[in-house]
Amino acid sequence: RKEVEQDPGPFNVPEGATVAFNCTYSNSASQSFFWYRQDCRKEPKLLMSVYSSGNEDGRFTAQLNRASQYISLLIRDSKLSDSATYLCVVNVWANAGKSTFGDGTTLTVKP
Amino acid sequence: DVKVTQSSRYLVKRTGEKVFLECVQDMDHENMFWYRQDPGLGLRLIYFSYDVKMKEKGDIPEGYSVSREKKERFSLILESASTNQTSMYLCASSLQGRQYFGPGTRLTVT
């Protein structure tokens, strides 16, 4: 079993749709959580951190459920430019360098 | 903004050659990483370093070595390149758990 698991998709949605991705992690000692975005043939870039109380950044909302060991990313009012692969990232220690990446969920937003 | 640069965007090498991939970060981060990314396999950690002259093996270190002589620079070395090392290589540095990636080097070994 992988330490971090994501549904690979692809998710194909129309513009304006709301879409949600989930990610599960196996290590209950995990301390910090992030979502990254990776465009085709580009490097991953930090999208947002995920906090225990949940957090929002514009159209993006991230949530953490420690009891069930999953994190989620909700994208509202999808734009064409949201098309990318979204990577879930988990660190066992809050400030540790080493991260465990999920394999990513691919989103395509269509006109 | 954090800037991580890699020495080459594209590289073509022959089987058996020694290959050097270099990575430089400008934010004084202590932690640096080398990954490879292949279709269907996700990001796989090759080596990481948490300080100058310190290194730790990642998940797939075989066939690779690293060097960190200065804090800002982390080099990946393929001692004798093989065709199964054809891949996208990504370098990253991190602060407080957040990783910042370079643009990647697409290496082809023929």
Describe, in plain words, how this protein is organized in 3D.
- The complex is a heterodimer of chains A (111) and B (110).
- Chain A is built from no helices and eleven strands.
- Chain A is mainly β.
- In chain A, the strands form two sheets. In chain A, strands 2, 4, 5, 9, 10 and 11 form a six-stranded mixed sheet that branches. In chain A, strands 1-3-8-7-6 form a five-stranded antiparallel sheet, with no helix packed on it.
- In chain B, the strands form two sheets. In chain B, strands 2, 4, 5, 6, 9, 10 and 11 form a seven-stranded mixed sheet that branches.
- In chain B, strand 9 (87-95) and strand 10 (98-101) form a beta hairpin.
- The radius of gyration of chain B is 13 Å and the shape is globular.
- Chain B starts with a strand and ends with a strand.
- The A-B interface holds A 31-32, 34, 36, 42-46, 49, 87, 89, 91, 93-99, 101-104 and B 30-33, 41-43, 45, 48, 50, 90, 94, 96-104.
